């Protein structure tokens, strides 16, 4: 009998289901041995959820070619990065969390694809992102190969080196040995010949700054990176770094500091330095690791960062005083027609010296909601005053 494509799909789904049953604790060898036309139960998803599950897994495994949205650049806002010619999306996707081997690969893949559909062209990584370290780069490399390879020239991909990656005296900080070896490892994990931006992830107090920055210069001149950046450098360190890189002929493109309503250290000199030096600014943790969302208004959800043992946000950070501020900010956001997260992102972007904000996402819906912050970036003076009052209370 000639079978249809659907019949073949169901047959393969049944075989997948039977194989799963065979090797599970609920194995039923007599059922697994029987042919599909005599299994004795309905092959409809409603009648048998196991068949639905097996079919869904099969469909996921099929190689469906990804085609990005045709209108992906129409709505996204792009800002010039410092005095360079490079434009970055006002919202960029960070892979610090949710892309490690402990996370679901297909969820991360869907987030990346949807981000590109929304005009997010910048994807930010580091050698130690995971967990385990290196796994975020490896997984993003798989996504690039499967989905985004034809669009490489439309992407800005960055990585960093500075934190612990391997044992011994050469596995962290800011020596040429470590930085250039780490970049080679990152490129291998990503499956790329070059990254667009390579960062010194943190200032090394025990290595001459000239040495650290000469490694960035070498990476650019070797064609393994297009631009050089720094992260977590203090204002005075940034001034010196900008001078050294400028003299080397590889200007500092961008600085990546932590900045949010709850963490405002960049306002004490760094933003002024970046403006004067013509260096772009990409802010990480603009939502304070999720505190500046509605996620923690009613306690700590089981799937939240604060509930995970490997996260940077700890339960003890969510104090009663913080909860009161979050609740008050949430009410103000509602009056603006935004979620708290959207208002918090817009607040960081209110300063024209900020080029882009890095957002993380554990779900596609979360990504879409955060990207929608760009729909309202304007603040009235009384709104800014109310925010200041809440934050200082």
Keywords summarizing the entry:
TIM Barrel, eight-stranded parallel barrel, 10 strands, 393 residues, 2 domains
Q: Which range best describes the helical content: under 10%, 10-25%, 25-40%, 40-55%, 55-70% or over 70%? A: 40-55%
Write the CATH homologous superfamily of the largest domain.
NADP-dependent oxidoreductase domain
Low-pLDDT runs of 5+ residues are: 22-41
Q: H/E element string?
A: HHHEEEHEHEHEHEHEHEHHEHH
Number of helices: 13
CATH C-level category of the largest domain? Alpha Beta
Give the overall silhouette: globular
- Nearest-integer average pLDDT: 88
CATH topology of the largest domain: TIM Barrel
Major beta-sheet overview:
8 strands, parallel, barrel
Please state roughly what percent of the residues sit in beta strands, choosing from under 5%, 5-15%, 15-25%, 25-35%, 35-45% or over 45%: 5-15%
Mind sketching the topology for me?
Blueprint: H1 5-22, H2 29-33, H3 49-61, E1 78-80, E2 87-89, E3 91-94, H4 105-117, E4 122-124, H5 135-148, E5 156-161, H6 176-190, E6 195-200, H7 209-221, E7 225-231, H8 235-248, E8 252-256, H9 270-277, E9 280-283, H10 320-335, H11 340-348, E10 356-359, H12 364-371, H13 381-392
Parallel strand pairs: 3-4, 3-10, 4-5, 5-6, 6-7, 7-8, 8-9, 9-10
Antiparallel strand pairs: 1-2
